[in-house]
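User: For a teaching handout, I'd like to show students what a predicted protein-ligand complex looks like in C-alpha cell form. I'll give you the sequence and the SMILES for flavin-adenine dinucleotide. Please answer with just the structure.
Assistant: Understood, here is the input followed by the structure.
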Amino acid sequence: MSLEHFDVLVVGAGLSGIGAGVHLQTHCPGKTWAILEARDTIGGTWDLFRYPGIRSDSDMFTLGYSFKPWTAAKSIADGPSILEYVRQTAREHDVDRHIRFRHKVVRASWSGDDARWTVEAECGEARETRRYTCRFLYMCSGYYRYDAGYMPDFPGAGDFGGQLTHPQHWPENLDYAGKRVVVIGSGATAVTLVPAMAGTAAHVTMLQRSPTYVLTLPGEDRIAGALRKVLPERAVYALTRSKNVLMSLAFYTVCRRYPGFAKKLLRKGIAAQLPADYPIDEHFRPRYNPWDQRLCFVPDADLFKAVRRGQADIVTDHVERFTPDGIRLKSGRELAADIVVSATGLQLLAFGGMQIRVDGEDVNLARTMSYKGMMLSGVPNFAYCIGYTNASWTLKADLASQYVCRIIARLDRNGGGYAVPHNDDPSVGEEPLIDFSSGYVQRAIESFPKQGSKAPWKLHQNYIKDLITLRYGTLEDSGMRFVAGRDDTAAAAEAA
Ligand SMILES: Cc1cc2nc3c(=O)[nH]c(=O)nc-3n(C[C@H](O)[C@H](O)[C@H](O)COP(=O)(O)OP(=O)(O)OC[C@H]3O[C@@H](n4cnc5c(N)ncnc54)[C@H](O)[C@@H]3O)c2cc1C
C-alpha cells in the first residue's frame, strides 16, 4: 500500500511548529509538508496551561516570531494573548490547513535505502494507526509530558480534606474566592500564581523548599512605547527585539562571570520592594549562583505588592505531611489550607516520547549527541526545536527552522540524499544537554541526548553566536555528512 508522502513532516502545532510552517512556506516554496499534532487545537503550552495569571516570563519582543511583530502594549504578556498571537500567525500564513490534528506520533523509522522516514501516528479516540512517509522529519514537540505534570508523592495527601491540584491540570471551575490557598513551589509558575490569586483568595502562601532568584521587570517596554510614537511597527519590533537580546545576553554574562556582584544586585532589587524588616535572606537567597537555575521574572513587582499588602506570604520550609486541614511542616508549623496547588513543575520528555529507529535499530537517545543544538548524531534528515534556557524560546526556534530550510535546499542541490551528523573526534567530551541544577532537569536529563564539549556539538545558549552559525555559517563542517541521493549517484556513475 502506498503511504501519503511529504517532503517534510513537522511534529507539533505549538509556537515552534506554527513558526516552522511559516519558514517552510517562505524558504522552501514548492515543498510538500504537513504538521502532525496530538491535540485537537493549535498552541501547545499556551493552550494547555490555564491557571490564573498564566503569562510569559520572557518579553514578547523576543518570544514573538522574527517575522511577526508583537504589537500589544504588554511586553510580559498573558497566556490567552500569546495563544491568539500563535493562532493568528497560523491563519495569516495559511499554516492551519497543513495541520492534521489528533495525530499522536509514536514511532519514526528511517530507511537509508529509500532515504525516507516512515512516521506512525495514533489517531483519534480509537487510536487508529496511520502511517506517512517523509524525507525530512522536524520535531517541534516541546520538551515535557503533556499528560501529567510532576507531583511529588506527598505523605498523607489522601488525608487532606481540601482540594489538591496541579497547574498543568487546572480545574475549569475552581473557586478560590475567600479560600486559604497554599502554592507549593518557587519557580515561574508559583511566582505567577501567588499574585494572581491574592486579593481574591482569603490568603495565599507560597511554600518553598528553597529560594529562587527573582527579578522585577516592567510589564510594558517603555522604550518600545516611545518608539511607537515615531516609527512604524516593524521598525519598533526590530529595534526593541535587538535591544532585548543584547540586554538579556549582557545580564546573563554578568551573572555567570561575576556571580557575587549579580547576587548583590538582585538582592538590592528585592530589598527595594519589601519592608526594611523583611527576612530577605531567608526567602530570597538561593544556595546556588544566578542562572545555575532559571531566574524568575516578576512583572511590575506584582509578587512583592501582594506580600506588602498582606494578601500573600512566603514560607521557606519542607512539607512533612498533609493533614486533614492543610500541611504540617518539618519545623512543626502548620499551614491551614482549603486549596493546595502543587506548582512542582514539569516532567521533561524528549520528542513527545516517540520511538526512533534508524535502519532497523532502535535509537537510544541518551547515546546520541546534539549537533548545533538541533540535530542528532547518527539520525539522518532529522531536526528538533528546543529553545534557550536563558532567553526566549522563539529566538532559537526561528534559527532552527531557518537552518532546516537551508539543509533541505542543500539536499536538493545534492539530488536528494540525506544529511547526518557524525562525531568521529575523540576529543569531544560528553555533557548534559541542559546544564541546570533544577530538580525537573535533573530528574530526566539522563534520558536526553548529550551535548559535546566543543563546536559543532556544544550548545551555546547564545543567540548571537547561533545567529552567526545557523543563519550565515557553513553547512559543511567536520560534524556533518551529506550523502548523495540516488539522482546524484546515478549521474556520477553515468559521467564515469
Ligand atoms: C507554563 C509555561 C510558561 C512558559 N513561559 C515561557 C516564556 O515566557 N518564555 C519562553 O521562552 N519559554 C517559555 N516556556 C517554554 C515554552 O514551552 C516555549 O516558550 C514554547 O511555548 C514551546 O513551544 P513548542 O511549540 O516548542 O512546544 P509546546 O508548546 O510544548 O508544543 C508542542 C506541541 O507538540 C505536540 N506534541 C508533542 N508530542 C507529540 C507527538 N508525539 N505527536 C504529535 N504531537 C505532539 C503537543 O501536543 C503540542 O501541541 C514556558 C513553558 C511553560 C510550561
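For the handout, you might add this sentence: Residues 157-342 form a domain with the FAD/NAD(P)-binding domain fold (CATH 3.50.50).
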